[in-house]
Design goal:
By secondary structure, this protein is an alpha/beta fold.
């Protein structure tokens, strides 16, 4: 059963409660209030219930890799050990680029998985065509 490593604050619990049963939602919270924690706790809760297997994080280049540290902070070591994680990085030459062995392996894992993507890499003309 999923248990958060760090107890959520009252306003984070309120946000988690508002997310229950919703197909879509937005976390409109001030900076540095723990949106990442809320999203990861919700993923853990949904994964534990068998409702999801994967979490896709699309974030700016300056922060998308910080999610790697947050996974270790927010998930218990037992849960973190069960989660496959891959941080996607765009390549220089998309005409000749092939999926990395790490990405190929990640895609064969049966959940839970967390896939981190740099949003700017998606807007490159060459990468968008792939």
């Amino acid at each position: 059963m999923y248990q958060p490593r760090l107890e959520p604050r009252d306003y984070q619990v309120e946000a988690l409660d508002k997310m229950v049963g919703r197909r879509a939602f937005a976390l409109l919270m001030r900076p540095r209030t723990g949106k990442t924690k809320v999203a990861l706790d919700d993923f853990g809760r949904l994964e534990d219930a068998g409702d999801v297997d994967d979490l896709l994080v699309v974030a700016p280049a300056g922060v998308y890799l910080t999610w790697l540290d947050e996974l270790d902070k927010q998930f218990t070591p037992e849960f973190r050990g069960c989660v496959a994680v891959h941080a996607w990085r765009s390549g220089r030459s998309w005409k000749k680029a092939k999926p990395s062995p790490e990405l190929k392996e990640f895609l064969t894992v049966k959940g839970p998985r967390v896939f981190l993507v740099n949003v700017e890499a998606l807007s490159l003309k060459k990468s968008g065509a792939r």
